[in-house]
Amino acid sequence: MTNKLTRRGVLKSGAVAGAGVALPTIFTASSASAQAYTNEPTGSTVTLGFNVPQTGPYAEEGLDELRAQELAVEHLNGEGDGGCLNTFTSKALKGNGILGKKVQFVTGDTQTKSDAARASAKSMIEKDGAIMINGGSSSGVAIAVQGLCQEAGVIFMAGLTHSNDTTGKDRKANGFRHFFNAYMSAAALAPVLKSEYGADRRAYHLTADYTWGWSQQESIAAATEAMGWETVNNVLTPLAATDFSSYITPVLNSGADVLVLNHYGGNMVNSLTNAIQFGLRDKMVNGKQFEIVVPLYSELMAAGAGKNVQGVLGSMNYNWQLDNEGSRAFVKSFGEKYGRPPSNSAQTCYAQTLLYADACERAGTFNPCGVAEALEGFEFDGLGNGPTLYRADDHQCFKDVLVVKGKENPTNEYDTLEIVDQTPVAQVTYAPDHPMFGGAEASLGTCNPGA
Amino acid sequence: MSEFILQILNGLDKGSAYALIALGLTLIFGTLGVVNFAHGALFMIGAFCSVTLSRILSASYETVDPTQKDFLGNPLKVKSTYMESWLGPDIGGAIIDWSVPLAILFSIPIMIAVGIAMERGLIKHFYKRPHADQILVTFGLAIILQEIIRGFYGANPIQTPAPEALSSVAQLGGALGLEIVYPAWRMVYFFFALATIGGVFAFLQFTTFGMVVRAGMADRETVGLMGINIDRRFTIMFAIAAVVAGWAGVMYAPINAPNYHMGMDFLVLSFVVVVVGGMGSLPGAVAAGFLLGILESFASWERFKVFDGLDQIIIYLVAIIILLTRPRGLMGKKGVMED
Lengths: 451, 339
Description:
heterodimer, A: Rossmann fold, 13 helices, 18% strand, B: two-stranded antiparallel ribbon, two-stranded antiparallel ribbon
């Protein structure tokens, strides 16, 4: 076979191939310049992007988020029983889509990895024309995707993200969080811990070594120390750790009488299981019953930990047992469709999708800057959590926080946690320039409409 | 002192799992010459044998209790197990309670079937291919197996408790005047690992089958020339290695709730154990398993921790040092891994 490759030929082929590769970008650029903002809907539909973990360790949580997001789209399009559209205090949503456009959605798989989450969000924005991204089960992912949405000029309605940083030092003008945060968990838990276990306690912390773990530990240590507890030790544990026995054994002789597990997901299931195996909850130390605290709970984690959660205190953003009009409507709608009660990650994604749609309606536009303005300072009720404020300064929602406890005698597989207290919003509110949230230097920046 | 002893126990406990998995890996490498990256998946399948038997024994039927309401306000459907209905709450409850130890028997045919299917169906086609090909194909197989398990059982960990009688903590330090408490099931796991390892060694050492296998490991061709079907025996050894890995998983289920990813968590560490012990050396794999388990345990102890995360890398640091100074591993045969 004759080799017909020549320098000139290669250059020509290269130029043609280069032009070919560049062509879609050229078209994208010219079409984008005609738009007022990124992915301005021009047809009869509007596309939302649901970026949730569909594979990996939080896939179950992602699946529940997706259920709730599908339900929200159904309600927005006037299908089903309407769910919280019937209880939402804002009456802008009519069940005819958003601004008259039928809502459709695309999904991405975050894999609970920042790079994969950014790639899937980017794909949904650039290829599918998604105008809003919602979902996720990790603070690392939320912060990464929030940054991407800010650059791309779309709104990011965060899913489950609990680190202070999401609306603290990493807050963005295009990003909004309905879920509560580590500071709020600590502020809500501290008074309950004091009343249940007393003010004279010695706490040993095991902390997941990443942004959420640091944030949670800092918050709970500050809150418990303020009420008189002493922090004996804080040991950072690798996120990849599966067996925590080597971290638990030093607790036995540390003089601590409380173990605080700043762990989430699989880490929490394993560390709590290991702590129970070592008999910590049966121990008496300093003349007191040894106690374990899990600052952040989720129903799926509690199910994973089984009976090990019984009697262990923690906090949640939402629980399906919450008895208010919005919660009842959501649980009924979700339960009848899927045969199970919603998790708190599902509820936050459902609420976020409705809140976004409502803001578009009230702003009369999909322009992210108009939507952001409509969300800022917005006060609402009827989505399940009770009266809530979307604070303008940091795009963080403020509402009552639930303190929950692993149920001693569950009656069925969903009956794992019980609400022991509902801490009023005033007790968990903090200044926007709080040092744990980036201080005075933290800034939203300016809204980016993209295009 | 008691903390020191506790960390030794932790190390032996971790080392038990490493040693059992590494033992199977070494058996497969020593007999078939295959680097089996799907071995961690066998450990995971073993753990899910516990989950499966527990679910089978806990199979239940529903009755409606009009006095209680479910989350939608409908009459609550109460679950009762067939086992307790048929055999009474005492015997039926005890059988359910002991599902993990019973899973040792339950897992044998499953692990043999999985092992033989894996070897005959896929791995035998890669015997003469480079190790890189073997690694790629077995790693791919491991991912497929874990995704199948995820498809069936979901991504959430599934609690599979030890029998109530073995769920408490054992008081160990009485004779020494120390306060040492250690989970009873972890002690069971350690002694179970020792018994299994002893059983495999005895099988290889004192049976004709084992003698042939050892001869085949030393010189496969000559054994074949003597008219012995060594391939068939090696396939059986693959199945035995699968059972050993499966048992490691079965008994590990109460220690950490099984999840579809647990095989991968152990796989790389177990390979390092094999390399440190010496490729193809069964005593090396066992010794290195316990040694590295203890090292990892002490590295995570604050008193010895030079920096955060040391316990996550200590095994690899040791592996680097061993490979630089003694490429054949601690107890490896001369010439293996040295060229």
